[in-house]
Amino acid sequence: MEIDFWLQRWDNDEIGFHQQVINPYLMYFYGQKGPAVEQRDKLKVFVPLCGKSKDMLWLSQNGYKVFAVECSERAVKDFFEGNALNYRHAEKEEYALYQASDQTSMIEILQGDFFSLQQADLDGVTDIFDRASLIALPIELREKYAQKMAELQKPGIRSLLVTLTYDQSEMNGPPFSVSEEDVNKLYSDNFSIEKLCFKDIINDEPGFKDRGLSSLVETVYKLVRH
Ligand SMILES: C[S@@+](CC[C@H](N)C(=O)[O-])C[C@H]1O[C@@H](n2cnc3c(N)ncnc32)[C@H](O)[C@@H]1O
Prior knowledge:
By secondary structure, the protein is α/β, with parallel strands linked by helices. The protein is 28% helix and 26% strand.
């Protein structure tokens, strides 16, 4: 599941992972249960493997700064153009940097490979929202991703991680099944891990039922870098 696989998915419009609605866990933990609105401009949320997720728009409209990385140029342009956001574009080393040029939208997306990021790229990041990012990757890349996440983060950075768990013999990924044990193996050396909630969502996901799944548990974790 290297970058070419994803570029082809974007070219062919095979983006079933893209959601029209804002992630409910993001709205709950960063909205209702989140910091007061007047404190949010000090918080910068990193969205790895961001696609054209509307969650970035919600974060920005709710007072957070957003920094994201995505390999597909098409996804990045669709994000800005589809949400009627004006943007600037510049080359930044091996990346293309897209920035909302409107004063009220603090959104920056680096278009390029997540695995080439450096710790300095995450300067000012306080929080991370990982939905459909870790679970988009097969096991070998998940290990590399978790290792990279540990390298990139300064102590204290918080992540909200959303996973899916199902019987991997019933369906091929992506998304891949990631169990609680997997999360512990991937992150416990470098992060504290708190399981916030979980729910079997198979009855709300006819597409996954059609792909053969009998159960699909969504779990949300809070990770904090030691
Ligand atoms: C399953 S999608 C999830 C997108 C987004 N998180 C969401 O919730 O809609 C995974 C995304 O990761 C991007 N991607 C995959 N590997 C990448 C890499 N090494 N660097 C940057 N982006 C990558 C793909 O292009 C795709 O848009």
